[in-house]
Amino acid sequence: MFTEAQLYSPVTTGADGDVTVHLSDEHPGVHDPEYRARRNAIAALALNYRPGAAVPQIDYTGEEQEVWRIVSAELARKRERYASAEVIEAAARLGLPGDHIPQLDEVTSKLVPLTGFQYVPAAGLVPLREFFGSFADRIFHSTQYIRHHSFPLYTPEPDAIHEILGHANQLASPRFAAIYETVGAAVARCTTDRALKFLADVFWFSMEFGVLRENGEVRCYGAGLLSSFGEIEEFRQAELRPLNILEMGTAVYDITHYQPILYCAESIEEIEEVVGGFFATMDDEVVRELIGTEV
Fold first, then answer.
1. Residue 22 appears among annotated catalytic residues
2. Choosing from 27, 141, 148, 167, which is the catalytic residue?
3. Are strands 19-21 and 11-13 parallel, antiparallel or unpaired?
4. Which residues pair with 170 in a beta bridge?
5. Under a CB-based contact definition with an 8 Å cutoff, are residues 37 and 18 in contact?
6. DSSP 3-state of 111
7. How many angstroms separate the Cα of 29 from the Cα of each of 20, 35, 79, 244?
8. Of residues 208, 214, 228, 231, which has the active-site annotation?
9. CA angle 101, 87, 162 (to 5 degrees)
């Protein structure tokens, strides 16, 4: 269960320049010194990255590659069974490798001809304004680390599997990529934290955990569902409600559990009209009018 800029392990830089990723006590890798050192090193590379520079290349270990192969194969099967046709077709065009973890510049080389999106490295949490705002330039901030090998089908935080197998397969669709771009443009019009939070929550219930009806079935298109081995099997058990921007932007939800309420579109066109249409026009005033209070 993921939401951007939440659930990422905090990353700090000490006075001596050492970078530390602070894993939670429940993290599968917290007691593995090699994994912790690995996470620190990958985070340091991301923190040293500057726009326009070469994207750091990660020399992934055999264990990390095996995790990718396991999860990639499992999610590919589930995607065919549960994902929307738009995502399935986009993933086929993108053609992410199943036998190795793609470097971020490899993801970019596959995405740019399709939708123009580029991947850049992130150590972990990226501020909401920077993360969503970068969509206007068709840039996606992605982590490069891989979940702990002891639990290949589970992670308590977003990792490269979520951000590549979830978001990149979604971003390979020109229709979904266009919605991302409208999100980025909306960020520039939002000056208050309340409006930005409203935007993030609508994004959560659409591009992260969105579902739609297709040929009599409920299918998923949200990146959080596409990359969650467990929740992609369970989302049809949720209470499905019609798209409602006010509810989506103000709902209280627990990101540590499967979502009990999801917002279901009747078609891709409805997603474009309702969700994309909202992002295309939203600003502080629009949000203020929706929620009826000062933002």
1. no
2. 167
3. antiparallel
4. none
5. no
6. helix
7. 14, 6, 27, 39
8. 208
9. 35
163 and 142 Cβ atoms separated by less than 8 Å: yes
Nearest to 21 by CA among 29, 30, 12: 12
DSSP code of residue 4: T
Q: What would the two tokens of residue 28 be?
A: 């599968």
Q: Distance between CA 65 and CA 149 in Å, rounded? A: 10
Catalytic residue among 27, 162, 173, 214: 162
pTM, full prediction: 0.94
Say which of 72, 173, 227, 228 is annotated catalytic.
Answer: 227
Tokens matching residue 189: 């019009």
Q: What are phi and psi of 240, to 5 degrees?
A: -100, 125
CA dihedral 107, 108, 113, 117 (to 10 degrees): 120
Low-confidence ranges of the chain (pLDDT < 70): 1-6, 256, 293-295
Whether 209 and 262 have beta carbons less than 8 Å apart is answered as yes
> How many Cα atoms within 13 Å fall on the side-chain side of residue 7?
18
Q: How far apart are CA 46 and CA 106, in angstroms?
A: 16
Does residue 162 carry a catalytic annotation?
yes
Does the active-site annotation cover 167?
yes
Beta bridge partners of 265: 212
- Both tokens assigned to 280: 């295309």
CA–CA separation, 181 vs 186, rounded Å? 9
Q: Where are the beta strands (DSSP E) in the chain?
A: 11-13, 19-21, 118-121, 139-142, 211-214, 217-220, 239-242, 261-265
Q: How do residues 133-185 score in pLDDT, each as one tens digit?
A: 999 999 999 999 999 999 999 888 999 999 999 999 999 999 999 999 999 99
Annotation marks residue 109 as catalytic: no
